Amino acid sequence: MKVSKHAYAYTPGLKIKEFTIINKIRRLPIPGKVLVKEGDEVNYDTVVAETLVSGDPYVIQAAVKLGITPDALKDCMVKKVGDPVEEGEILAKYIMFFGLIKRYVRSPVKGTVESVSDVTGRIIVRGAPVPVYVDAYIPGRIIKVIPNEGVIIETQGAFIQGIFGIGGEKHGKIDVKVEKPNEVLTPDKISSDDRGHILVGGCLATLDAMKKAVEVGAAGIVVGGVESEDLKDFMGTEIGVAITGEEKLGITLIVTEGFGRMVMHKRTFEILKKLNGYMASINGATQIRAGVIRPEVIIPYEGGASQESSKDELAVGMVPGTRVRIIRNPYFGFIGKVVSLPVELQEIETESKVRVLEVELENGQRVIVPRANVEIIEV
């Protein structure tokens, strides 16, 4: 078999863009109503679509409560299937001994009677529908309406992806708290004036700094690294392997490099410092496995020079000289450049045979890692 000497591998990369065109899909979880039209200008909080999600079901052991057999329940019903009910309203009643004994079953919530079973003796009340709204998240222009589902919004500005994050969508003013990318974000750098701000640190955010940020009402933190034990203490639980982004911690955290004391990538820090004081959108949602989702920082602004040249490199894939970030232990978060891409499969610690590559780290060390364990840094 003939093998090209110009071997390469394609691996999607983390983007670090000072200025680019950004398209965001904003979609409802279930079909609903789109509230804007193509060409409309929207802001961060503009509601672009809405729907109603069914409320929770509440199962009531009605026959047991009334002291009757299940097949007698329908004769005791005050409400019928499909009727709306208020919290505390009578659903069924049983009166005996000429009114001396009265038993009632009341609705635990406001909602609708969904079913009445003469087999189980149960009544199911469905809670009132819950309205769900989808906002624009970023300022921009509606370039496409997806009927009954959502929209695509286009804006332009800086776009930075992190390696890990927690917390959902927020927006606020970029506030760089350190002078250099190797500085630590400590609580003394944070004050009550930082309410609603997105705080930018350097190589590390301490546990006390994260707590202080929550205390003053900051919107988020963007930092190179965080100690895994500090993150565990901050979250109050172990870091799971599933998708993040739904945590209710009062703040969104985006880690750009990895766990531990990790100097923020020079280009990332330069962009954030240059755009200090600009409004930004952030989202900590992360999924490493199938269907990769990356935490992100979007800083909308006009007048920059588009940076799309890196698409050519991504189309070709990794070649010697390509800058990559390692995304698995034991070199998680390390940055380097590809030295070589051996064609032959090589055995790794798990005794599996996989394709690997040789990476020269920024400290000069050369390591061999599986190709699946790296991402191209797109700048």
Mean pLDDT: 88
What gap, in angstroms, lies between the N and C termini? Answer: 36 Å
What is the β-strand count?
A: 29
**CATH class membership of the largest domain:** Alpha Beta
Shape: elongated
* Biggest sheet layout: 16 strands, mixed
Continuous helix count = 6
Structural category: mainly beta
Q: What portion of residues is helical?
A: 10-25%
Low-confidence parts, pLDDT < 50 over ≥5 residues?
1-12, 308-316
Strand content: 35-45%
Instruction: State the CATH architecture of the largest domain.
Output: 3-Layer(bba) Sandwich
Number of domains: 3
Taking Cα atoms only, what radius of gyration do you get, to the nearest Å?
A: 28 Å
Question: What is the CATH topology descriptor of the largest domain?
Answer: Glucose Oxidase, domain 1
Structure, described:
- It contains six helices and 29 strands.
- The protein is elongated.
- Helices cover 11% and strands 40% of the residues.
- It folds into three domains: 16-22 and 155-300, Glucose Oxidase, domain 1; 57-127, OB fold (Dihydrolipoamide Acetyltransferase, E2P); 310-378, SH3 type barrels (Roll).
- It has 379 residues and is mainly β.
- The strands form six sheets. The chain has a 16-stranded mixed sheet that branches. A four-stranded antiparallel sheet has the order 5-10-9-6, with no helix packed on it. A three-stranded antiparallel sheet has the order 2-4-11, with no helix packed on it.
- It starts with 13 loop residues before the first strand and ends with a strand.
